[in-house]
């Protein structure tokens, strides 16, 4: 490794914690993967993060480490306290930045919510490199996001900004697991999407999805819907087009309110195909106010599997 | 007038232009009103603004004028260019700040969109004095707004932020005059609200609204619905409660995305009664994400008829 300077990016997830060495142009030079052990409580999780970072350090091949960035689930406040990450046991509020400073005190440490970190990653290294203001969307299990204004993350007053999954698109709509009704996540999030596909398949015995799941509809997931769509399956295409349109409707409202023209879509579902991104774009154009229409662009995120590590690295200035 | 320093606040509307002298605590010490003559083109309108400001100057009674603030309809860019204000003839883009600087060159001049100016007014002098971050809503003919972050207006990348009226609350909903569907304005804006009331009255011959409009349903306006509600009319109360709930649903999405806890409601309909504000609050609480729920506050704006002049004055630092 001939790089003289690297940043360590840490992607803390519910299942695994990954640390990588990132070069100055966003190249991932090395990466590892450790179990998070999220069910064992904060001190065990911190130890796993410690291991992952130390392993990356050991592989830096003489390069200078400029800092450590960590993307974490949950709300992350200005002091690097991580609050209530879903599926982490006994984790109410943990001062992760303080804890890691004890272990790696010599380095600048940045901690941010994972969706915000991914938005920063796309801004620094990905599809948003040339775009100063955009709405980043993670479309996968749920729908989340981050807002980039003037190339910086907009965290909101308490660090919770960017929750675009819980914008209502039908006040009489289905219950969302947030307790509200008609949230866009309750239409296009992974679980709901798979459920709607299963329902629709009842009247479509010809759909290719039946074979892809060997007749077991509980196996439907977006990857399979996407695969079927790529193979020309009509039901799959319809489901994804509808989902894109509904997502676009929600994004349009946010883009109106925040005066934004660009949205970058990441997460598992963003890989479903260009036609889905195009459907989101069409819906946004249809729903935004006139002065915005001609400048609307909806783009697929570019960082793919490296989004977590690169986003985290992007936290180090 | 014993004030040593005043600001001149100018409220430019489609019908009249008002200028006032504002003391340091937000007292309106003097105000006037001139016809805008918006149908006669920009140079006539600028002359009317000139007259209104000069008249205020003439009545300042020796006080020092600290600056001139102007709230204008339409989009106002960073250079004080006013773009396409509705109902102003031959007005595409007019560099109002430059024009007024020629006439009143000695004074600092601030120009801002009228909804943003009103938000700043509530922040400096009104219900938002103690609240660093809030979403301001103008609920009247249409639904507009402004966003206050850290006591400053959030203008967005091009000065168009705050358009909360065109957040969708039902993707299958009625057409809005913006061309989209199911915008909250298409449910709770003055015209739509009056229309729905008229429809509902067909099956409610007992409603007091019939008398208030002397049987002419085209005369229904929010002031009348509000009056009927105050007199215990069930239809009127229902209509306003529903409207408050729908508005709250839209606000909740924006508050989720921007991490905001407080909304301040101004405009004609905010005066319909505390029960409407309470209905908005209930709906916001029901629809926002859990971490926000306990801190949600929906407040009525305080500046009332003086909002325009005070908001404009608030533009001068």
What would you say this structure looks like, in words?
Two copies of one chain form a homodimer. Chain A is α/β, with parallel strands linked by helices and 317 residues long. The first copy, chain A, folds into two domains: 5-117 and 306-313, Nucleotidyltransferase, domain 5; 134-301, 2-Layer Sandwich (Nucleotidyltransferase, domain 5). Helix content of chain A is 37%, strand content 21%. The first copy, chain A, is built from eleven helices and 14 strands. Chain A has helices spanning 42-58, 96-103, 114-125, 185-188, 190-201, 209-212, 222-230, 234-258, 274-287, 290-293, 307-313, and strands at 5-12, 16-22, 28-31, 34-35, 64-72, 75-76, 82-83, 93-94, 109-113, 134-139, 143-149, 152-154, 262-266, 297-300. In chain A, strands 1, 2, 3, 4, 5 and 9 form a six-stranded mixed beta sheet that branches. In chain A, helix 7 packs across helix 8 and helix 8 (234-258) packs across helix 9. Chain A is globular, with a radius of gyration of 20 Å. Chains A and B meet through helix 8 and helix 10 of A and helix 8 and helix 10 of B.
As for the number of domains of chain A, it is 2
> What's the multimeric state?
homodimer
Order of helices and strands of chain A: EEEEHEEEEHEHEEEHHHHHEHHEH
Total number of strands of chain A: 14
Beta-sheet strand percentage of chain A?
15-25%
Structural class of chain A: alpha/beta
Count of runs of 4 or more consecutive helical residues of chain A: 11
Helicity of chain A, as a percent range:
25-40%
Radius of gyration of chain A (CA) equals 20 Å
Rounded average pLDDT of chain A: 94
């Amino acid at each position: 490794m001939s790089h003289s300077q690297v940043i360590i990016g840490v992607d803390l997830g519910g299942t695994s914690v990954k640390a990588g060495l990132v070069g100055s142009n966003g190249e991932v030079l090395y990466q590892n993967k450790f179990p998070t052990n999220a069910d064992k409580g904060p001190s065990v999780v911190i130890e796993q993060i410690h291991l992952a970072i130390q392993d990356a350090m050991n592989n830096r091949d003489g390069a200078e480490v400029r800092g450590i960035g960590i993307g974490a689930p949950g709300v992350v406040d200005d002091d690097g306290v991580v609050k209530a990450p879903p599926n982490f046991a006994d984790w109410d509020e943990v001062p992760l930045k303080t804890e890691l400073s004890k272990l790696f005190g010599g380095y600048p440490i940045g901690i941010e919510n994972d969706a915000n970190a991914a938005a920063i990653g796309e801004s620094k290294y990905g599809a948003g490199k040339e775009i100063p203001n955009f709405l980043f969307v993670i479309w996968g299990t749920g729908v989340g996001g981050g807002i980039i204004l003037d190339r910086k993350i907009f965290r909101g007053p308490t660090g919770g900004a960017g929750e675009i999954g819980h914008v209502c698109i039908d006040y009489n709509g289905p219950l969302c697991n947030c307790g509200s009704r008609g949230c866009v996540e309750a239409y296009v999030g992974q679980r709901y999407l798979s459920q709607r596909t299963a329902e629709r398949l009842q009247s479509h015995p010809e759909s290719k999805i039946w074979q892809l799941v060997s007749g077991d509809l509980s196996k439907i997931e977006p990857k399979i819907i996407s695969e079927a769509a790529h193979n020309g399956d009509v039901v799959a295409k319809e489901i994804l087009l509808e989902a894109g349109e509904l997502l676009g409707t929600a994004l349009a409202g946010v883009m109106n309110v925040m005066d934004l023209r660009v949205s970058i879509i990441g997460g598992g579902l963003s890989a479903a195909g260009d036609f889905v991104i195009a459907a989101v774009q069409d819906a946004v154009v249809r729903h935004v106010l006139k002065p915005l229409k001609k400048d609307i662009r909806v783009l697929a995120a570019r960082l793919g599997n490296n989004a977590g590590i690169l986003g985290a690295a992007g936290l180090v200035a």
